[in-house]
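User: Design a sequence. Structure:
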């Protein structure tokens, strides 16, 4: 078993069991099910029918049939990749250990390295682009890199005095941004990341991500199943009841506005009132789930410790 440093694994860890099978060495193309069933996938993005996922050993994999088959993208060798984001159907970026930043211009089929700084020993944990030129990548020990030329060059900038881990960066609205991190770190920016202001935190444990609800609220989640909701852009927070103490690692908003959160021990929660309340639902696994995505009709595609699995989303009222 080995630790995978990701937006959630900084404290609790996701694991990849056993030695790498020969199939893991496939450079690109169709992957055998024996590989995809064991591959740690930390994050993913959906573009129409295509899902692009990243994870262990620098793997970037894609599916266009909701996980029935997966192909490995053409990408340079890389360590663990922790996050992937797309600006539009063509332009996307992935980040990971060694402060590596990869980019694609063809929807995830081919990737090229833009940046890497292994000597800094600051794994990157999330990335956000505001447009085709302006982007930011955040990570461990206060890592904050920014670009103003689409990733041709990246500059390191210290935005706070301490070195808390930055686990997630999201766009709340227009130029309003939010960073969530270790020990309850919450930073807000009202000028597209030029300046950052610490916000009073409701929690001293790590926060791993957030989802913007249909009514504009922010739902943040993290260690020990904690969930908090803000209706003022992240300045004030109210705790949302959750009986589970399983760490929550990823979240998404479904087309109908439902919020789905996922985490340790196969935990999944759904909210149909913009994050004011959550109900658990079964996923059929006790393996860690790192990221939920929209699946086929009425389903959620979960990525995590054992590849991908599709689960039916409980109907409203059940």
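Assistant: Done.
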């Amino acid at each position: 078993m080995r630790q995978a440093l990701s937006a959630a694994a900084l404290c609790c860890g996701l694991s990849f069991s056993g030695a790498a099978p020969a199939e893991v060495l496939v450079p690109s193309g169709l992957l055998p099910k024996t590989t995809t069933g064991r591959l740690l996938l930390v994050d993913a993005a959906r573009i129409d029918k295509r899902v692009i996922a990243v994870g262990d050993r620098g793997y970037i994999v894609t599916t266009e049939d909701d996980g029935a088959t997966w192909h490995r993208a053409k990408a340079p060798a890389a360590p663990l990749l922790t996050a992937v984001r797309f600006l539009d159907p063509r332009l996307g970026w992935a980040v990971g250990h060694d402060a590596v930043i990869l980019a694609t211009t063809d929807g995830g089929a081919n990737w090229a390295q833009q940046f890497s700084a292994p000597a800094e020993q600051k794994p990157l944990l999330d990335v956000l682009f505001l447009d085709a030129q302006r982007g930011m990548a955040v990570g461990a020990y206060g890592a904050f890199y920014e670009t103003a030329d689409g990733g041709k060059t990246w500059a390191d900038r210290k935005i706070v005095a301490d070195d808390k881990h930055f686990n997630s960066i999201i766009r709340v609205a227009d130029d309003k941004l939010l960073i969530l991190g270790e020990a309850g770190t919450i930073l807000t920016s009202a000028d597209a990341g030029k300046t950052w202001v610490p916000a009073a935190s409701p929690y001293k444990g790590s926060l791993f991500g957030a989802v913007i609800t249909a009514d504009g609220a922010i739902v943040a989640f993290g260690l020990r199943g904690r969930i908090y909701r803000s209706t003022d852009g992240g300045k004030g927070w109210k705790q949302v009841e959750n009986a589970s103490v399983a760490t929550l690692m990823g979240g998404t908003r479904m087309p109908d506005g439902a919020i789905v959160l996922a985490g340790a021990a196969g935990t999944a929660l759904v909210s149909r009132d913009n994050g004011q309340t959550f109900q658990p639902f079964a996923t059929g696994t006790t393996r860690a789930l790192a990221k939920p995505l929209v699946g086929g009709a009425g389903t959620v595609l979960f990525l995590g410790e054992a590849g991908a699995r599709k689960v039916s989303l409980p109907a409203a009222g059940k």
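The chain is about 0% helix and 40% strand. The longest strand covers residues 166-173.
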